[in-house]
Amino acid sequence: MEFSSKLLEKAVNEMAQLPGIGKRTALRLVLHLLKQPEEQTQYLSNALLNMRKDIKFCKKCHNISDTDVCDICANSTRNPKIICVVEDVRDVMAIENTNQFKGLYHVLGGKISPIEGIGPSQLTIASLVEKVKSGDIEEVIFALSSTIEGDTTNFYIYKQIKEVDVKTSTIARGIAVGDELEYADEVTLGRSIVHRVPFENALKNN
Ligand SMILES: [Zn+2]
């Protein structure tokens, strides 16, 4: 791509670093911003900078939050004895949208993936195990996507907590293998949380 301006080229190259954005799309977005009033670009840059600078991770569940403890963990009407283990904030949003879950979450920050070089220590597994071993938890629900990485992660955690007197379950799979939670429709996802099955049963099926 030949650019008539170094400034334009730089902006396009930065935009094209984002996932799913090729150079052509990046150029289209940048040209769109150029046509808008300058403030529009200002709002966009400020929103991104402030998000990056001020965002926090909840001390309890590791969900993305504006405060030290997120709104879900701080909500006294929720049941703190039931913990739903998810990969990231998108899964929390998807499950919250179903209105079927009134416990708390634990956000792992990813899945164990040797191919991508992600090991257990890069995830928040240790703090989850600690939480469960504290004895205040009655049930741990695994709600990771049913991919090899998801299953590996579930099993890794399960092995560490199976000696503790805690119920472990997994969301019932109306969701096709490989589907990410965020793409499952609300009704299906809601149903699969309500009809969750003991984790041991899921192990036998594999
Ligand atoms: Zn939280």
From TrEMBL:
InterPro entries, A to Z: DNA_Rcmb_RecR, Rcmb_RecR, Rcmb_RecR_Znf, TOPRIM_dom, TOPRIM_RecR
Lineage, top ranks: Bacteria, Pseudomonadati, Bacteroidota, Flavobacteriia, Flavobacteriales
PANTHER family, alphabetized: RECOMBINATION PROTEIN RECR
PROSITE patterns: RECR, TOPRIM
Source organism of this protein record: Flavobacterium aciduliphilum
Protein name from the UniProt record: Recombination protein RecR
Keyword DNA damage belongs to the record: yes
GO BP term, pick one: DNA recombination
MF terms (GO), sorted A to Z: DNA binding; zinc ion binding
Family annotation (CDD domains): TOPRIM_recR (cd01025)
Domain Toprim span(s) in chain numbering: 81-176
Gene: recR
Superkingdom of origin: Bacteria
Record family assignment: Belongs to the RecR family.
Function: May play a role in DNA repair. It seems to be involved in an RecBC-independent recombinational process of DNA repair. It may act with RecF and RecO.
Keywords: DNA damage, DNA recombination, DNA repair, Metal-binding, Zinc, Zinc-finger
Matching Pfam families: RecR_C, RecR_HhH, RecR_ZnF, Toprim_4
